Give the backbone structure.
Amino acid sequence: MEIAVGVLVALVVVLAAGLLMQRRAAARRDEAQSAAAADLLATLRPELASLQQQALQQNNEQFMALAKTQLGAETARGEEQLRARGEAIEKGLTRVGETLDSMKKFVQEVDSKRAESITQLTALTEAGQRTMQNLGAETARLQRTLSGGQTRGQWGERMAEDVLRVAGMLEGLNYRKNRQLEGGSGRPDYTFLLPQDRVLHMDVKFPLAGYLRYLEAGSEADRETATSDFLRDVRQRVREVTTRDYIDPTAGTLDYVLVFIPNEQVYGFIHQHDATIADSALEKRVVLCSPLTLFAVLAVIRQSVESVRLEEHAHEILAALDAFQREWGKYQDAVETVGRRITSAQNAYGDLSGTRTRQLERQLDKVKQLREQTGIDAGAGLESGDAPEELPARVDP
């Protein structure tokens, strides 16, 4: 065992010595190669420097030539782009100039039109001021005119007549005006004539004085006082109507009477400040009417009158329709008779122009053939195609 270990150790030592010698030999070879490479490099260094210098010079020359070529191309391209941009700028400046010219013209036109508009507006303003002044003067004159009770009454009657005319009412046919009641007190402004000898009376009331004081009031207390006086005046007018004989069914009147207030503003003012006035008036069988509501009432009256008249004359209309129906039957019978006669005449005419004419033509053809066969002179008898001077009344086939 010890011998084997000793042998193994000896082998290891031998191998280690061999490896060490190989490494030393390799190191000496590397040193020799490095020295040879250094000598070769020292020998080739001048030539390499010369070649490097030549390559660098050639590269510089090629680079300069390429740079000159690229610079020329880029310069030409830049000049072309500059020319194109210059042309585009010139075109843009031209368009800008044209736009500025058009804008200048537009501004001048706008200024001119604005000056004309200002002139027209000034003229219209002056005309409006004159109109307002005239309207104010006319309003003041109208207020002075309507300050009197008689003038207001005439104005109210004029408004009522306008409504009556629009509603298609005719004086003497549909209504009477300012006629004293027979056997009673009162003189209604208008009396509407209804079927079955019934009538409906209407008075025109224009309580304007209190309303004008309300409009001219300068304080709230004055307006309240004017409103109270105005409403009291309206109630008084309603009571005046009820004291007269305008509602008398025994005398042929309806159970209501109309009171016409010829102004929508005044009528609306009454309802706005005391809606109980209209209800109280209805309880007294008094109907307050404005121009619009009067037109509606008149339309109902006219429709009812026409309906009653139509009902009264319905039997006459039916009798007229019956008579028309009988006459229409006679007319149809007469038309049928005439038609049959016309048909018979047409048939007779067709027989004459057809069958009878052809039979006559056959006889004429036979006469022509006989004349040609016998050689009779045409001048001595009938010429070809001529009819005889006299024909028998009837020719049998």
Remarks:
- The longest strand covers residues 198-204.
